[in-house]
Amino acid sequence: MNLVKTRDDLEREAPRLKKEWIQKIDSIDNANRKYVLVFEDLVFEADHEQGATCC
Fold first, then answer.
1. At CB < 8 A and 24+ separation, what contacts does 44-53 make?
2. pLDDT confidence of residue 31
3. For the chain, how big is the Rg over CA atoms in Å?
4. If you average pLDDT over every residue of the chain, what do you get?
5. Residue 24 and residue 20: Cα distance in Å, rounded?
6. What is the pLDDT of residues 29-46, one digit of tens each?
7. Which residues contact 26 (CB under 8 A, 6 or more apart)?
8. 17, 31, 43, 46: which is deepest, by most CB within 10 A?
């Protein structure tokens, strides 16, 4: 199992992520949750630390 993710991996997996755990958003300015993960130009938000580390 490869734990290293590329930008393409995250972009491809984003639609399959459980929205209650982590969700892709357009920009950091749109974040409403406690945790924000920024990877190059992709931005994700999560309520819990485990959600931000799942992808």
1. 44/10, 44/14, 44/17, 46/21, 46/22, 47/21, 48/21, 50/21, 51/21, 51/22, 52/22
2. 92
3. 10
4. 81
5. 11
6. 999 998 888 888 888 888
7. 43
8. 46
